[in-house]
Design goal:
Structural class: alpha+beta
Number of domains: 2
Order of helices and strands: HEEHHEEHHEHEHHEHEEEHEEH
Keywords: Signal
Radius of gyration: 20 Å
Strand order of the largest sheet: 2-4-6-12-8-5
Number of helices: 11
Distance between the termini: 42 Å
Shape: globular
Number of strands: 12
Length: 290
């Protein structure tokens, strides 16, 4: 009962926005429940006032039997320098401390087509670099002996000149957007992120982590048929660039074997990230779990 009171009081507390990064209970929960369970609770809160949504969420957790799966909750989000409306990712923090636990979670919850492609590639992973806020949360998780987070609602920034500090890059991705939109493609720069098959390349953007998309729909991948990176592009145009796509992770194994290939990915339900230093242990567990 004391734990319930503590959880309830934390969920109902109000926090004023601050410049920089703010750790707040209001954004997500540390749990072992599946992404679909988390999403169903999140959707149930939409449309209600902030305090009412948090009360509804506590009520659903208490009646769903998942309270025993909760531990101390933390989250982070970006806050604008002028204190205006926060933007950025939400996070679900998983109480997973061992590579075996993380591997089991991936096998049970990761997009099945993607995991099969990883397996068929000889267990080659996709990587990206963490943002400053994500690194802050991952560091905090490591201090709690937890090693994985789920990233939700990551902002799409490929069309933003600030991402590559280049107007030419933004124009390139806008051209790619137009081309893919004309094709009726479900993946395009406006709803996707870029990952790489090379952890050292990912580390140029932040601490390298492997990515594990969730969901059996709304998960797509796109890459250059001949491999390589999207930007900088040799001719700064997409017209002559043949592309390959994968729906729900199927048929991605050849691209995963590429040497420092960039792969654009769409994961509407979110994706798990795991520090690159756990790669070998994850692979060992995956191979023994076959």
């Amino acid at each position: 009962m004391r734990a319930i009171s503590l959880l309830t009081s934390l969920l109902l507390q109000q926090r004023a926005p601050a410049t920089g990064f703010e750790v707040s209970i209001q954004q997500c929960i540390v749990c072992r429940c599946s992404p679909s369970h988390y999403a169903s609770n999140l959707n149930a809160r939409k449309g209600a006032a902030p305090v009412q949504r948090r009360r509804q969420f506590v009520s659903r957790i208490l009646h769903s039997g998942t309270l025993s799966l909760l531990t101390f909750p933390f989250a982070t989000h970006r806050v604008q320098a002028d204190g205006t409306k926060p933007t950025g990712s939400n996070f679900t923090l998983l109480a997973l401390s061992s590579p075996e636990e993380i591997s089991q979670y991936i096998i049970q919850n990761c997009n099945r087509g993607y995991f099969q492609s990883v397996k068929s590639s000889g267990f080659n992973f996709l990587y990206r670099g963490l943002s400053a806020g994500e690194e802050q949360i991952m560091s905090h998780q490591k201090n709690l002996n937890n090693r994985a987070i789920i990233i939700l609602n990551e902002p799409y920034d490929l069309l933003d000149p600030k991402t590559y500090n280049s107007n030419e890059a933004a124009l390139y991705f806008q051209s790619l957007e137009d081309k893919l939109s004309a094709w009726g493609s479900s993946i395009k720069p406006s709803n996707a992120h870029i990952a790489t098959t090379c952890p050292s390349e990912a580390s140029k953007w932040g601490s390298a982590v492997s990515i594990w998309p969730f969901g059996e729909s709304d998960v797509d991948f796109l890459w250059l048929k001949d491999g390589g990176v999207f930007w900088p592009s040799p001719n700064q145009t997409v017209k002559a660039q043949p592309l390959k796509r994968s729906t729900n992770g199927i048929g991605l194994e050849r691209a995963l074997q590429g040497d420092a290939w960039e792969i654009m990915f769409r994961a509407d339900t979110g994706f798990l990230v795991v520090p690159v230093e756990l790669d070998d242990e994850l692979r060992d567990y995956f191979r023994h779990a076959q």
